[in-house]
Design brief:
The complex is a heterotrimer. Chain A is mainly alpha-helical. Chain A has 16 helices and 4 strands. The longest helix of chain A is centred in the C-terminal third of the chain and has 41 residues, at 379-419. Chain B has helices at residues 2-32, 39-56, 59-85, 90-112, 139-161, 163-173, 175-180, 185-208, 217-232, 237-256, 266-269, 273-284, and strands at residues 128-132, 135-138, 260-261, 264-265. In chain B, the strands form 2 sheets. Chain B has a two-stranded antiparallel sheet with strand order 1-2. A two-stranded antiparallel ribbon of chain B has the order 3-4. Chain B is globular and about 60 Å long. The mean pLDDT of chain B is 84. Classes of the chains: A mainly alpha, B mainly alpha, C alpha/beta. The interface between A and B is large, with 48 and 46 residues.
């Protein structure tokens, strides 16, 4: 993990983040923006918790939704008990219930999963995820079957006058927990366990020879991570007022993996970016096209191939150039690359949407893109979009070559200056 | 008795199909260190390609064409994708194949729609092979077993008796030495990965019409294959064989049994059983039944 | 005088290949003991057996009188034995300071703590700084270990090994791949850090061995040919044959 030694910069960043959390609803005032931001807040916690495993501990898990989902289930039952009056806990403290549930299951499953490392651990986590998913469907009494369990968050005595009925109150609850969890998880990276988790990630063998039981380090890291995953699940439960099998599904596990990776695994704030981008993709894009999952998958694949450090790495790479005030030289190459990408993207979207409309016989073959209507069977449309895609890709190839030439030149000059 | 025999035969034929899939996965893993998350997606592609080809031409051509097509896709994936991420390490390779699985699943959704397709057993193979007591054992199941065994025997022969097989075995532990001796190791890896994909595709051709061919089939069988590989021991073909038969029979029997355990019938609990087996094994024998290589 | 390490009839085979065949060895408390021998004799394997990286096929290994046979590496390390590696085995992505700090944390008693800020632990910082000074890498403290030169990485390797303050130190070819000057520096470093401790060293450089060691054991084909002071070993005809013999064969084929 990269840390800036300047404490001032750190205080500024954290304060700025807090301010952003506070004023965001006043900038994006549409109600769908508010729900999206609330979702983002809960998902940020989940993605950061996931990166405790992957980025910090070197453990790739395909089943982390187990902890957030089971946390959500326990929370929903607790909330229903509060509603019935048999149990009292103020709604703002409910995510803690989710967290503790996540922690408990982390200890239970973590004992088995951390017996192995690496690829085997990944497969075991997948197996546990499938097992829990199957169990959830098998016991409808507790888990509510396919439909899940619904609840009402406006129960019990209002907390400081807040009922948490209105969406804005839920947003601030989520924002508070999000900030608190972010701070807590960051603090954990600075503890002996946090540093040894990094050591175990980098060189598990040597970690054993300096006195650490690597399995125990990984187990503890997983347990702590599942606590925060459970908190995220609890917040999800409060926000949506329903918990179903989808909360523990492989889809959700895959989603947090995608989000964390897209954001940037090697950096603490990477998953924050990834969570925001991912939720945006899911919520905004899924309204426009049925193929959004395809686009997301393609985006993820391209990141794995060409930008394995995620969006965060792209951003951080620009900083030395900006500091040396030479970013202007990259503006034109970047513009060209962006334009080429847009052209290729337009072609891709056209082709994909056309295939979709052709295979989905129920909708008929008339479709519209960017306001322009046409028939998915028309040869002209196919030609246009294929040409756009091909031309865009070719142009992109040249544009990227231009970018890397300019980049290389700047890097060489910066390094020469540093050595002098 | 009849029930037991029929279910055992069914379990073995299903187990052999599972072994076709898990052996391809294990071979690629042993030889390249890559666990191909998209292996089950190649299985699905094999089934869908076979469906298209047998609808236009016939089943028997499909038996050859579909695996070849899937194998070609596998080689392209290795050449243009896997080779690029190889330098970023095993996690990146696994993530790449994970993303690929996602992509193939969605592409299948896109092209063939969300519901299952009518990929049927060909008429000449439809019918009873022999009769056990009162049950008729279908020809097609027998055919599946035949193809599985034939394919596996020929692979074993190819690896141990041919020159390319020896090169592959050598490249497993000493790729640089093998390359220094003049063999095109990257091409070998491309062939191995393509071969693994073709094997999965073939399993799809014969499995897709015995079971259902739908976009969710990769996600349904994928985790089972990974459980088999973990239970058998990562990198062990013998372990994968035992585990495949074990889990094949376990699932086949469980689905057919109606005994009740604390409010749940065994058949309802069937989906969970392979994972329970994995958990138990991990507690008592973490390296798997015949574990050799650490992932 | 107690024995720091004692090997009793230790055997190690990989499959049917016998690597270590009945080695019995006593390393006295506080001495500097070198293990020498031709390539393939099993010197590194012996280290791996003592430090817990491999399990023995037969025999016992004792550390300060306690049985450590087949214990796991971290258990053996916690009992006071620390080893370096022939192929540098450090944390490449962490800085020099962080590398050494990892070596300090367990022995400083902080274990798996997730409630203390590691930056606030003064003794940990102090110990790590001391070790960095001794290995001469204080000026490079914030560089990622992967960017150091080879000799600096070897020094860091030793640094991580001694950071835990173990009383028994195993160094596996500490001067391998080094120039004359670098070797001399490492010899001085080893001399100073092993004051009052027990050192077991695998080495090929005879100058280093005869300069540093109190006693030497010669390992050939998995068996101890001879153990003794440098003079005894130098004058031993069997040792001369095992070494001069192999030299002769090399010059004959050259």
């Amino acid at each position: 993990m990269k840390y800036q030694p300047l404490n001032l910069a750190r205080w500024v960043l954290w304060s700025a983040t807090a301010v952003v959390f506070l004023i965001a609803p006043h900038i994006f005032t549409k109600s769908f923006a508010l729900t999206m931001m609330t979702q983002m807040g809960a998902f940020i916690i989940f993605a950061l918790a996931y990166n405790m495993l992957l980025g910090q501990g070197g453990m790739l898990s395909f089943g982390h939704a187990v902890y957030s989902g089971l946390g959500a289930y326990i929370t929903v039952h607790a909330l229903n008990l509060v509603g019935k009056g048999s149990f009292y806990i103020p709604v703002p403290l409910l995510p803690l219930v989710g967290g503790l549930a996540g922690l408990a299951f982390g200890m239970l499953f973590g004992y088995v999963t951390t017996k192995r490392a690496g690829t085997t651990f990944a497969l075991i986590s997948l197996g546990i995820g499938e097992m829990v998913f199957a169990c959830v469907l098998m016991f409808p009494g507790f888990f509510g079957g396919e439909a899940g369990i619904s609840t009402n968050r406006v129960v019990g005595k209002p907390f400081l006058g807040l009922t948490f009925g209105p969406a804005i109150q839920v947003y601030y609850l989520v924002a508070f927990w999000c900030f608190a969890c972010m701070a807590a998880m960051f603090a954990l990276t600075q503890t002996p366990l946090g540093r040894m988790a990094n050591a175990v990630r980098d060189n598990p063998e040597r970690a054993e020879f300096v006195g650490y039981n690597t399995q125990h380090v990984r187990f503890l890291q997983l347990v702590l991570s599942s606590f925060f995953a459970g908190v995220s699940g609890g917040l999800s439960c409060i926000n949506f007022e329903i918990v179903s099998a989808e909360n523990v599904s492989a889809i959700r596990s895959g989603g947090v993996l995608l989000a964390t990776f897209i954001g940037g695994v090697p950096f603490f704030f990477g998953p924050i970016i990834g969570a925001i981008v991912f939720i945006f993709f899911v919520v905004a894009l899924s309204g426009f096209t049925k193929a959004w999952l395809l686009y997301l998958g393609l985006f993820f694949l391209l990141m794995v191939l060409y930008v394995p450090g995620g969006i965060a790495s792209l951003v951080l790479m620009q900083l030395p150039v900006i500091r040396a005030r030479r970013f202007g030289e990259l503006a034109w190459p970047y513009c060209l690359a962006a334009s080429a990408s847009l052209v290729a993207l337009a072609g891709l979207v056209g082709v994909v949407e056309m295939v979709y409309h052709l295979s989905d016989v129920s909708g008929g073959t008339q479709m519209a893109l960017a306001g322009v209507g046409f028939d998915a069977r028309s040869g002209l449309a196919w030609l246009v979009f294929s040409v756009l895609l091909a031309a865009g890709l070719v142009a992109l190839r040249y544009a990227l070559r231009f970018v890397s030439e300019r980049w290389g030149m700047i890097q060489a000059e910066l390094q020469a200056k540093a050595a002098a | 008795m009849e029930f037991f025999l029929v279910q055992t035969l069914n379990g073995i034929s299903y187990g052999l199909l599972l072994f076709m899939l898990s052996s391809g996965l294990t071979l690629v893993f042993s030889l390249m260190g890559v666990l191909n998350f998209a292996h089950a997606s190649f299985y699905m592609l094999g089934a869908y390609f076979a469906y298209q080809v047998s609808a236009k031409i016939g089943f028997w051509p499909a038996l050859v064409i579909a695996p070849v097509l899937v194998g070609a896709i596998g080689m392209l994936v290795e050449r243009w994708g896997l080779r690029t991420v190889h330098r970023y390490g095993h996690v990146a390779e696994l993530l790449f194949t994970f993303g690929l699985a996602y992509l193939i699943d969605e592409a299948v959704h896109l092209v063939w729609g969300r519901s299952s397709v009518e990929y049927r057993v060909p008429p000449d193979l439809d019918g009873p092979l022999f009769t056990i007591f009162t049950s008729q054992y279908p020809i097609y199941r027998g055919f599946m077993m035949l193809v599985s065994v034939a394919m596996l025997v020929s692979i074993w022969l190819a690896l141990t008796r041919t020159r390319i097989g020896l090169v592959i075995q050598a490249a497993l532990t000493h790729p640089q030495t093998v390359e220094a001796l003049g063999h095109n190791v990257p091409r070998v890896f491309m062939l191995v990965f393509g071969g693994g994909a073709a094997l999965a595709g073939l399993a799809g051709v014969i499995g897709g019409n015995a079971f259902v061919t739908e976009p969710g089939m990769a996600a349904a069988v994928g985790p089972i294959i990974f459980v088999i590989v973990v239970v058998g021991g990562m990198g062990s073909l013998a372990g994968a064989f035992i585990a495949s038969l074990l889990i094949g029979c376990l699932q086949t029997f469980a689905v057919a049994l109606d005994w009740s355990l604390g409010g749940i019938t065994v058949s309802q609990a069937a989906p969970v059983l392979p994972y329970l087996l994995m958990v138990l094994l991990l507690i008592f024998r973490p390296r798997g039944l015949m574990g050799t290589r650490e992932g | 005088m107690k024995n720091a390490i004692e090997l009793q009839e230790v055997h190690k085979s990989f499959g049917t290949t016998k690597i270590i065949q009945g080695v019995s060895l006593e390393i006295r408390d506080g001495e500097r003991h070198a293990i020498i021998g031709p390539n393939g004799a099993g010197k590194s394997t012996l280290f791996n057996l003592i430090s817990g990286r491999y399990e023995v096929s037969a025999g016992r290994i004792l550390l300060q009188g306690a049985d450590i046979t087949n214990l796991r590496p971290f258990e053996i390390n916690r009992k006071g034995l620390s080893r370096s590696f022939q192929v540098t085995n450090i944390f490449h992505n962490m800085t020099v300071f962080e590398n050494i700090r990892c070596g300090v944390l367990w022995s400083a008693g902080y274990r798996y703590s997730f409630w203390q800020r590691v930056g606030a632990l003064k003794e940990v910082k102090q110990r790590a700084e001391e070790v960095m000074e001794r290995i001469g890498l204080a000026k490079r403290r914030n560089l990622p270990a992967g960017t150091l030169t080879y000799a600096e990485q070897r020094a860091l390797e030793i640094g991580v090994t001694i950071a835990c303050g173990a009383s028994v130190i195993l160094l596996d070819e500490p001067t391998s791949g080094m120039s004359r000057t670098e070797t001399a520096q490492v010899v001085e470093l080893v001399r100073s850090i092993t004051q009052g401790k027990t050192l077991v060293m695998v080495e090929h450089d005879m100058g280093v061995v005869f300069g540093l060691a109190d006693r030497i054991s010669v390992l050939v084909y998995g068996e101890v040919l001879a153990t003794g002071t440098p003079e005894e070993i130098r004058g031993n005809p069997a040792v001369q044959e095992a070494y001069l013999g192999s030299l002769h064969k090399e010059t004959a084929h050259a």
